[in-house]
């Protein structure tokens, strides 16, 4: 398409746009592919955007100052590529779903404090025997044998009290049931 060609509404404009793409599309794509570091999809998108700009501004294509519209198209495409690069650099990098699914979830301080208060209140509902075993084994980190020696009861009794204490806590704290297993 040359500078003297006019773009009008209707099918004439569409045919002229197709001719414009056919004549200048490959060199424009090659330039944009280099500017997009080999990203074919981004380069194709920028070619389309450049052609849309040509369709939106037919007066620029009619200028008598030049013999070909290629320099105008290349300039518009280059500026669009620069703008796209700047926009990508201005925002944080995109993260795929696979990375998010594998990342560790860390509860914030408020959630941990709320959970600690809930557990503290739930432990108060246990019998003193069950509470003693839980405090020794789960909160102070004692082994079953150490808890049995400290409390003066057999290890089997420590295990059964711990089991029944956790079962009681599951009933009192239904939202935390998965954490109590």
Total of DSSP H or I helical runs spanning 4+ residues: 9
Shape: rod-shaped
Largest sheet: none
Order of helices and strands: HHHHHHHHH
Structural class: mainly alpha
How many β-strand runs? 0
Q: Could you list the spans in which at least 5 consecutive residues all have pLDDT below 50? A: 1-9
Multimer state: single chain
* Rg result: 35 Å
Fraction in helix: over 70%
Mean pLDDT: 82
User: β content, as a range?
Assistant: under 5%
**Span of the ends, CA to CA:** 73 Å
3D architecture notes:
The model is unreliable at 1-9 (pLDDT under 50). This protein is an all-alpha fold. The protein starts with 10 loop residues before the first helix and ends in a 9-residue tail after the last helix. It has nine helices and no strands. Helix content is 70%, strand content 0%.
Short description:
The protein is mostly helical and 181 residues long. It has helices at 11-35, 40-56, 58-61, 70-90, 97-102, 109-124, 128-139, 144-151, 155-172.
Would you spell out the secondary-structure blueprint of this structure?
Blueprint: H1 11-35, H2 40-56, H3 58-61, H4 70-90, H5 97-102, H6 109-124, H7 128-139, H8 144-151, H9 155-172
Feature tags:
mainly alpha, 181 residues, single chain
